[in-house]
């Protein structure tokens, strides 16, 4: 039973990962660019340092990532209103509509799946999502920390 659950969960995670890769490819982006764009969509404007910390990229790699996203029209650089010496990266709303067109059909399918659950079951699902996301981010940081300097 435990092995079956493990396999089911792994297949779920693989499908989510595959969907992210397919979305990135459809948008002409690398997986890290796709993730950075999702961060900006969810969080709003971030400094390049914040984006670097959240993606796990070096500052140089983050600058190149921002350059690519800016050239593609997905983000723009703006002065930080709190500190004019800093630059923030903000998503371009019209460009995000293109992303929504790519992922919209899958979001609709997932909404149908979730809609099959009772409100109480949905509460459990969303409690899991809320708790699992930070756990996966922490696990990702642990992996990065363990592999730095190799």
TrEMBL record:
InterPro entries: HTH_MarR-typ, MarR/SlyA-like, WH-like_DNA-bd_sf, WH_DNA-bd_sf. Pfam families: MarR_2. Coiled coil: none annotated. PROSITE patterns: HTH_MARR_2. It comes from the Bacteria. Residues 1-134 form the HTH marR-type domain. This is HTH marR-type domain-containing protein. It comes from Amycolatopsis bullii. The lineage of its organism: Bacteria, Bacillati, Actinomycetota, Actinomycetes, Pseudonocardiales.
């Amino acid at each position: 039973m435990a092995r079956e659950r493990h396999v089911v969960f792994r297949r779920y995670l693989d499908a989510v990962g595959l969907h992210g890769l397919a979305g990135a490819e459809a948008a002409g982006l690398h997986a890290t660019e796709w993730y950075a764009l999702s961060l900006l969509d969810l969080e709003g404007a971030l400094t390049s340092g914040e984006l670097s910390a959240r993606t796990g990229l070096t500052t140089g790699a983050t600058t190149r990532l921002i350059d690519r996203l800016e050239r593609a029209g997905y983000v723009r650089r703006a002065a930080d209103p709190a500190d004019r010496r800093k630059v923030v990266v903000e998503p371009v709303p019209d460009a995000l509509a293109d992303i929504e067109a790519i992922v919209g059909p899958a979001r609709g399918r997932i909404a149908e799946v979730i809609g099959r659950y009772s409100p109480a079951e949905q509460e459990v699902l969303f409690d899991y999502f809320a708790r699992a996301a930070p756990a996966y981010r922490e696990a990702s940081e642990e992996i990065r920390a363990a592999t730095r300097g190799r």
